[in-house]
Amino acid sequence: MMIHQDGSTHEWVSGKKWDLIVTMDDATSEHYSMFFTEEEGTASSFAGVKDVIFSRGLFCSFYSDRGSHYWHTPEAGGKVDKKNLTQFGRGMHQLGIEMIAAYSPEARGRSERAFSTHQDRLVKELALFGITEMAEANRYLNERYRPVFNTEFMEPAIEPGSGFVPLLGAQIDDILCEHYERTVARDNCISFEGMTLQIPQDRHRCNYIKVKVRVQRYPDGSLAIFHGPRKLAHYHPNGQIKEDEEKDAA
User: Fold this and answer.
1) CB contact at 8 A, 35 and 134
2) What is the mean pLDDT of residues 236-244?
3) Theoretical Cys-Cys bridge with 23: which of 5, 189, 192, 246, CB 3.0 to 4.6 Å?
4) CA 215/CA 22 separation, integer angstroms
């Protein structure tokens, strides 16, 4: 079971360029996830994969272009580095999903043909229904456009059954996000992208000074600090601790 993901920047509504992210079955062309976003990147790629896992289950392999959020490529146009993983690559590795890089335009032919259809049909449909805002456009994609597209264009599988595996026991939100290692300073804080994140007191230990912790940044921009499997605190995107969790930890 191979999943293919790609994005297309286009003027989907008059005067606005968005990125359309599609995560699809490489064999049948069935679109499992479609949504608009301001800019393709790590967060949008995680979101597409999460849609597939929640609706169908885990898959065996993931096929994509050599975009910088998927792969580190030491030489422009060269082979990808399969050992030095991006944040997205680390997430796939953690789930046991093999990543496969495309090395030719022809290898992406299925998604290119699909995007050609989307750019023709979807632009007209959004205009017909007077849809101009991204949230409304995303609702239309999932409630109307994607089901109709799949009915018309997906190819039947060669064999019956499913290659997806149920997701059991994994904290998927904590896997499909960005991970960064930091060392706690003497004031029981860490520095992260210009912000100082205070670790609140908890019942497990007095402080975490000089301890290596993991900062996780979620697709909505919120942050969390973990020591091993234990979450020490959860923060708003601006670095302010979420008050309800601070009370729980105190």
Assistant:
1) no
2) 87
3) 5
4) 28
**How much is the pLDDT for 250?**
43
Bridge pairing between strands 98-101 and 61-64: parallel
- Pair 232, 199: CB distance under 8 Å: yes
Tokens 């008059």 belong to residue: 14
In this structure, are residues 52 and 23 in contact, taking their beta carbons and an 8 Å threshold? yes
Q: What's 63's DSSP letter?
A: E
Beta strand ranges found along the chain (DSSP E): 2-13, 16-25, 31-37, 61-64, 98-101, 178-183, 189-192, 195-198, 212-217, 223-227, 230-235
Q: Which tokens go with 220?
A: 């909505």
- How many angstroms separate the most distant Cα atoms in the chain? 61
Could you give the CA distance from residue 234 to residue 202 in angstroms, rounded to a whole number? 13
**How many angstroms separate the Cα of 19 from the Cα of each of 42, 118, 135?**
13, 12, 13
Q: Indicate if the pLDDT at residue 247 is higher than 50.
A: no
**Residue 97: partners with Cβ closer than 8 Å, 6 or more residues away:** 58, 59, 60, 61, 62
Q: Annotate 123-157 with DSSP letters as a single string.
A: HHHHHHTT--SHHHHHHHIIIIIHHHHHHHHPPPP
Report d(CA 163, CA 126) in Å as an integer: 34
pTM for this predicted structure: 0.86
